[in-house]
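User: Show me sequence and structure for the first protein, then do the same for the second.

Assistant: Starting with the first protein.
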Amino acid sequence: MMKRPGEKLYSLVFRQIRAYILQNNLQPGDLLPTEQALVEMLGVSRNVLREAIKLYDSEVDRLKGPQVAPKAKRGKGGKAK
């Protein structure tokens, strides 16, 4: 996935997470990979990943419809699973 001109890195990662959810047909209650796995998979820092997950969570809250996946589940220490 290509970064758009002027796009923040966390926004690109947000789009990549959303694409991962759709490509893997994740359903409500399914877990995302661990924070460490996502950092390695996407090649970004934990801070960028956390900003992307915050953006994703805010989009889910905003849309609140059946067409969106659930909020990212978090393990101990606030890490996404």
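Switching to the second protein now.
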Amino acid sequence: MGQWLSWIKSNEKELLLILDNLAKKAVETSEAVVVLFSDLSNAEQGEKIHRLETEADVLTREIFAELNKTFITPLDREDMQRIASKIDDVMTLWMELHLECTATKSLLLHHIVKKWQTN
């Protein structure tokens, strides 16, 4: 009889753990961005940002999947979805910023080399 009520259980610990891990990824990515901006040629940091953003996408999907399986949540369902989505948006922004800086640096370098070759 208890089987059909199993979806009512609270996954509070799982949800909060995933949300905490997602927040930690955001902090780690922010730190990698700071290091990258101090040395734009640091490809290792760029790869780290990309890896962390990909891992954050997985965690965001996990939160949504857990929320879909859970009736009782530690916070309002929509609030948890919004928090996860916003953290993921920030992570995506950091990755896009890294890609933009890399592209800009490449264009600037190309422009400098071209100008140097014409002189």
